[in-house]
Design brief:
156 residues; mainly alpha; 7 helices
Length: 156
């Protein structure tokens, strides 16, 4: 049985997208074991991938917050410019400026996430449901993995 540190290293490498063959060479664990770990730690690996992706979004200003700030800033600048116009032509026509405003308004609206709130009862119910699912999934996972192992042993 491999130690926890080896398993954690596997999860990190897998979350980075490395193929099982490269991971097997790097941490000196058989591919069969890695396939089992890949299934066993799927949720943890998915979470690590999501955290890495979130960091990339933030690094390249792709997070929802950054997009909302960008579109909000552009809309504010266009709106301020429209307010200063005396409806004469300047470098950008008023018509073009209105078109730009409408475009950015639509883009900002499409970017904004839907804001929803849950009352205390809904929060408690969601937490209870997640806890129950978690408790039910653990024995089921063990049973499925056990059956899988039993089938492999009987075939050999």
């Amino acid at each position: 049985m491999k130690d926890t540190q080896t398993k954690e290293h596997f999860m990190e490498l897998r979350a980075h997208g490395l193929p099982l063959a490269k991971i097997a060479d790097e941490i000196d664990v058989s591919k069969t074991t890695l396939i089992n770990w890949d299934k066993e730690f799927k949720e943890e690996i998915d979470n690590l991938r999501a955290m890495e992706l979130e960091a990339l979004y933030d690094k390249y200003d792709l997070s929802t917050r950054k997009r909302v700030e960008f579109f909000g800033d552009v809309l504010s600048r266009i709106q301020r410019e429209l307010e200063t116009r005396d409806w004469d032509l300047s470098r950008v026509s008023t018509e073009k400026l209105f078109a730009m405003y409408a475009h950015f308004y639509r883009e900002a609206h499409n970017t904004l996430p839907k804001i929803t709130f849950s009352d205390e009862e809904e929060v408690r119910a969601d937490k209870a449901q997640k806890k129950l699912l978690s408790e039910l999934m653990t024995p089921q996972k063990k049973r499925i993995l056990g059956e899988s192992l039993d089938q492999k042993l009987t075939k050999s």
